[in-house]
Structure formats: C-alpha cells, structure tokens
UniProtKB/TrEMBL annotation:
Pathway(s) annotated for this protein in UniProt: Lipid metabolism; fatty acid beta-oxidation
Major localization listed first in the record, in broad terms: mitochondrion
InterPro entries for this protein: Carn_acyl_trans (IPR000542), CAT-like_dom_sf (IPR023213), Cho/carn_acyl_trans (IPR039551), Cho/carn_acyl_trans_2 (IPR042231)
Membrane disposition: Multi-pass membrane protein
The keyword Cell wall biogenesis/degradation belongs to this UniProt entry's keyword annotation: no
UniProt protein name: carnitine O-palmitoyltransferase
GO MF terms held by the record: carnitine O-palmitoyltransferase activity
Substrates-to-products reaction catalysed: (R)-carnitine + hexadecanoyl-CoA = O-hexadecanoyl-(R)-carnitine + CoA
Any one GO CC term of the record: mitochondrial outer membrane
Active site: 372
Length: 694
C-alpha cells in the first residue's frame, strides 16, 4: 500500500510537471503573431489544437503563471542593429557614423561581458527585467511621483449615473470590492491576446498587489508594502481623514449602507486638526523629505496608528468638493480641468502613495489616480472598466439617484483619524518641522502641477471602423498620424516611445516600441511634398510605414525589443563598476514624444449599440520630457478616438492645445490620402496642390 501510494504520488507529480513543460513549450511559439490576417499556417493550426487540448476551458486567474515562458535575452548584435536602425532618421550622417562606431566598440569590448552576466541572471530570475525596472525606474526616483509617475483614469464622457455624491461613492466602492473578491477567489476572467491563447501572466501577477498596497518613502529608495487583506477604506473629505469599515461580521456592506456612511462623513461638521488638511502634500513632493518626516513624526504613537490605517486600507477615496466633467458652457476647457484635477488635484487632497485613489466629485462625477510602480496602465484600466460597468449596469440607482438596498441602522459611524502634529513654535529645526515640510512639499508640488498643460479631446470624425475598412491597423494609423503632427508642430522628428506589453512572458511588464521609423519619416516627408503626383507614392509609403510599425510592435511583445535589454545591460555595468559611453548616451536620450494606448479589454461589459452615451474617456499621464509631449489615446467603439495630451507651460516650444489640433488635422489628412482615388495619367499632367488640400 505504501509503495502504491508513493508510486501514484510520483506519477501524479510527473504528469503535472510534464503538462507544465508541454504548455511552456507551446506558449513559447509566437509565430502566429507575425502571420497575415486570414492566412493561418498549418503549424499555427496544429499549435492552436494542442493548446486547446492541454489548457482548461475555465482557467483560474493564476492558472498559467508557472507555464508561461521566461522573457528571452536577445543577442547583443541584434539589439544594436535594431537600435541603430531606430535612430537613423533622427541623426545626421556624421552623428550616425559616430553612434555606429560607439555601438561597434561596445559590442567588441564590454557588450559580450555584460551579456554573460545578464544571461546568468535570466537563468535564476523569473523575469530578468521586471525587478530592476520596478526598482530603478520607479522606486529609486527621488522626485515627486505626482504628475511624473502617477496617471489617471476618467469617468464616462457623456453620462453621470447619479448626481448624488454619496451614492456614486457607494456604488463605486462596492464595485471595487467586488472586483477584489474576484481577484482573491481567482474568478477574474483571463485576459487573452488571441482566441486560442490562455491567460497572460502580466495582469495576474500585478493583480496581486492591486489592493491593500502602499508605496512607502525611503531616503535612497521607496518600498512597496502589501497586506493580505483589509476590511476598510481610507476617506478624505474637506481636510479630514476617516476609516470606513466596509465589512461587518464578515459581510460586505451593501452599496446603500456604504452610501449612508459616506453621507455621514459629508455631514460631519468637525474642522480639520492642526496640520491635517494638507498632510497629503507630503506624498506629492520630493521623496526624501517625506521619508525623513515619516521616520521622525509618524513612526510611533497616534500618528503611526493613523498613518497605518491609510496605508493598510484597501484603497483611498477622496470626496472632492468641486464639480467636474464636460457639461457646462466650456466643454473643452471643462475636460482639460477635469484631467488636471485627476492628475494632481489640489496637491494635498489625494494620497499619491496608495496603489490607487478614487475621486468622487460633488456632482457625482468620478475618476481614478494610480501609482505606477506596482502595475502598468492596462491592469488598472481593466479594474476601472469593470468598476464603471458594474456601477452603471449592475448595481444601478433608484429613481431619485440613491443606491439600491436597505441600511442596517445599527452600523457604527466611520472612525475619524487623529493626529498629533507639533506646532511650528515647538520645533527647533526646520527639517524636522512637520508644518514647514508640508508647506515645502506643497510648494514643490504646486509648481509642478501649475506647469502641466493638459488637453483632452474626443475625435469624432471617424474611428477604427473606417480605418479597418482600409485594411490598416488602427494603432499604426494613429502612431503615424502622431509622427505627422509632431513634424508639423516642431519641424523635425523625435525619439518616440510607445508602450507595449510583454504579457506573453512570466511577470512581463512593458517594452518600448520606437514608433519613429525610417518608413514613417519617409511617408511624412512625401506627404508634406504637397503634390498630387505624390499620391500613389504616399499610399505606398504609408503601407510600408504601417507594416513596419506592426512588426516593431510584434517584436517588442515577443521579447525582441531594444530598450529593456539595453537598460539591463546598463544596470549590470553599474553593478560591475564599469562605464560604457554607448549605454550612457543611449539611456540619456530624451523621449520628446511619449505615447500609450489605453486598451478596451472588456467589451462585453459595455453595450455601446444600445447605450451609445456610455463612452469611456480613457486616461492620461504627464509629459516625460520637459520639452516634449505625453499622448494617451483610447479607441472607443467604431467611430471615436479620445486623446489626452500633456506638456509643460515652461517650455515655449510646446502647447498641448496646438498639438491636439495638429493630431486631429493629421488624422484627417492621412484618411483623405488613403481614401482618395489615384489620379489617372489620361487626365493630363497633374497640377501642384497645397498641403492643406492634400
């Protein structure tokens, strides 16, 4: 019996390991991404069949984490070749020759040595990029994370489900907690890139730290702290902090009960305690002062207990005393102010260290501000899509705008947090004076916030429906339009960043698509030539640019990108204490155009045909370079693309509204070119035509 038990156990474990190994081999196949639409190879057909046989029909959230392949380390020569190709349109002949010499010298000397160390790390690390990316790009940054790192998500464009602030907060909090329950039970619907492809690990790994997570400041580096569970949320209202219990005896409170508790907070007449109102400014300023003050005044006693409540809360909620949204006499200006409010608010009424903060405005509008180190935007977008859909279509409201359900009258009221912040007169040293450091952090944050120029606009002329009829990738169409818009705005091309996901690999995060290519620049130059005789050539060049962009995106997604590999080689060089002029120059190049698409991942939740007004606005982020633009866009339905443009007022060469107009004009012009009939040679010689007409 013992022998049979041991044998059956070993056989069972062997089968599981064999199944995981087979799945890992199958999931390492990426050729299906490079095949033309409608032309599936026999190899891919066999792959799909085997994958369906070995994968479950209803996998759990984390089912495939151990089966996903590790991110491969590209060859140094391949990365350098792709890098030199990407910078060719941005450099003169002499600059390109110099950069080529630097790259060749790096490859022949230091590159292979750094590569060997990196491959050693890839053997034992789950992902050779993710931990270094999180630490060195996010957590070690000593500047403000507000604007520079955090990003935002918006409410519906046309619809506000209720104008009752407490009710909107009740449904929103309930929807978020239902999502957390699905994550904890691994019931979340897996994200797929292909109908045959199972759950992708990037989202699942990041979901683990979505709730009950806070970024805590340090002198040299910040730390992400995550707690297994939390039965309360932290609420900020008119300068006061509260703990709101959302569970009672193991039962999740109903949306109506949470609304009742939120209304109690709104009706509370008590004033803020000394130093309490603008305490959140510490999370908006530089990280070192916040770390020092936290250690000095918030590491013990009542201050530590109150700070623990905020940091251990499931998430943070701000009950904003302003009204936001598109409605009003100035829709365009209202959307711009709405974006700035979500990006930085008043610089003290958000807790920017929390994994995400929910903002509920006075008129019922809502939004989200997310910290970036723990997850990338698609993960938060998935959460926000579910929250908006559940709020509007599942939970719903009564006719008078309140949450549905009953209220247990014996519920204890929310707990007001207490603070003991010493007055300025009792503190000798300025660097340990809480009031002085709050004022200092607020000054730094306000200067940063006031410098941000945000512009949000819905593009309604056409959407992906019309673009796809031309057999063009919507993302490629938009990216090439951005190249044309930037060329018209600045008179030159620039290094362009487009974020792509490496979800095909275990613990994958992002990779850079360098959207400014030789092909896209050739198309822009031809289009700006402005003659009808160039129309066939423009179409041909556009097709080449579109195919090149799609190939670059696929290469990035399948682990053959450029920037993460070079970044990791640079980190290895720093560990070894050696300098590389090539890597130093590459890593210091500014991204003057930083772009990202917000994916719509759960279309089944939004019935836009029957509810066309429930259109998502998407979200945005601050500019990456002081003299550049940040552009986020979301393709909604078949006929709309929403854009979020950001830049800095302090740069005289950038203007978000001007660039937004250039984007809209570029989209229209490229669509006109692709839709136009090619002039026939029988009609005689073609006449010059202005750029505007073309």
């Amino acid at each position: 019996m013992v022998s049979a038990l041991v044998f059956s156990t070993l056989l069972w474990l062997s089968l599981i390991l064999a199944l995981r190994f087979c799945l890992k081999l199958l999931l390492s196949y990426h050729q299906w991404m490079f095949e033309q639409h409608g032309r599936v190879s026999n190899t891919t057909k066999v792959w799909v069949t085997l994958l369906r046989l070995l994968s479950g029909r209803k996998p759990l959230l984390y089912s495939y984490q151990t089966s996903l392949p590790h991110l491969p380390v590209p060859a140094v020569r391949d990365t350098l070749t792709r890098y030199l190709e990407s910078v060719r349109p941005l450099l003169t002949d002499l600059e390109y020759k110099r950069m080529t010499d630097l790259a060749n010298e790096f490859e022949s000397s230091l590159g292979n040595r750094l590569q060997r160390y990196l491959k050693l790390k890839a053997l034992w690390a789950t992902n050779y990029v993710s931990d270094w990316w999180e630490e060195y790009i996010y957590l070690r940054g000593r500047g403000p994370i507000m604007v520079n790192s955090n990003y935002y998500g918006m409410d519906f464009l046309y619809v506000t489900p209720t104008s009752v602030q407490a009710a909107r907060a009740g449904n929103t909090i309930t929807a978020l907690l239902l999502y957390r329950r699905m994550v904890n039970r691994e019931e979340l619907t897996p994200v797929r890139l292909h109908e045959a492809f199972p759950h992708l690990c990037a989202s699942s790994a990041q979901c683990e730290r979505m709730f009950n997570t806070t970024r805590t400041p340090g002198v040299e580096t910040d730390v992400l702290q995550h707690w297994q569970d939390s039965e309360f949320v932290a609420v900020y209202s008119r300068g006061r902090y509260y703990r709101l219990w959302v569970y009672r005896a193991g039962r999740l409170l109903s949306a109506r009960e949470i609304e009742h508790q939120i209304q109690w907070i709104l009706d509370d007449p008590s004033p803020p305690l000394p130093g309490e109102e603008k305490l959140g400014a510490l999370t908006a300023g530089d990280r070192v002062p916040w770390a020092q003050i936290r250690k000095e005044h918030f590491s013990s006693g009542v201050n530590k207990r109150s700070l623990d409540i905020i940091e251990k809360a499931a998430f943070f909620v701000t009950l904003d005393d302003e009204a936001q949204g598109m409605k009003g006499d100035d829709p365009t200006g209202n959307l711009d102010r709405y974006a700035k409010s979500l990006l930085h608010g008043k610089c003290y009424d958000r807790w920017f260290d929390k994994s995400f903060s929910i903002v509920i405005y006075k008129n019922g509008k809502s939004g989200l501000n997310a910290e970036h180190s723990w997850a990338d935007a698609p993960t938060v977008a998935h959460l926000w899509e579910y929250t908006l859909a559940t709020d509007a279509f599942q939970l719903g409201y009564t006719e008078d705008g309140h949450c549905k359900g009953e209220v247990e009258r014996s519920l204890p009221p929310p707990h007001r947090l207490s603070w003991e912040i010493p007055s300025e007169s009792t503190t000798v040293y300025v660097h340990t004076n809480v009031h002085a450091m709050i004022s200092f952090s607020l000054t730094v944050a306000k200067a940063l916030a006031d410098d941000v120029d945000c512009h949000v606009f819905p593009f309604r002329d056409f959407g992906k429906g019309k673009i796809k009829k031309l057999r063009v990738s919507p993302d490629a169409f938009i990216q090439i339009s951005l190249q044309l818009a930037y060329f018209r705005d600045r008179g030159s091309f620039c290094l362009t960043y487009e974020a792509s996901m490496t979800r095909l690999f275990r613990e994958g995060r992002t990779e850079t698509v360098r959207s400014c290519s030789n092909q896209s620049c050739a198309f822009v130059k031809a289009l700006e030539g402005g003659e009808v005789t160039l129309l066939p050539q423009c179409k041909r060049l556009f097709r080449q640019a579109s195919e090149k962009h799609q190939n670059l995106y696929r290469m990035a997604m399948t682990g053959a990108g450029i920037d993460r590999h070079l970044f990791c080689l640079y980190v290895v060089s720093k560990y070894l204490g050696v300098d590389s002029p090539f890597l130093k120059e590459v890593l210091s190049e500014p991204w003057c155009l930083s772009t990202s698409q917000t994916p719509v991942q759960q279309m089944e939740l939004f019935d836009l045909k029957n509810h066309p007004d429930f259109v998502s606005l998407g979200g945005g982020f601050g500019p990456v370079a002081d003299d550049g633009y940040g552009v986020s866009y979301i393709i909604v339905g078949e006929d709309m693309i929403n854009f979020h443009v950001s830049s800095k007022h302090s740069c005289g060469e950038t203007d978000s509204h001007r660039f937004g107009a250039q984007i809209a004009k570029a989209l229209q012009d490229i669509m006109a070119v692709l839709s136009a009939d090619t002039p026939s040679s029988s009609k005689g010689p073609a006449q010059p035509q202005s750029k505007k007409l073309l």
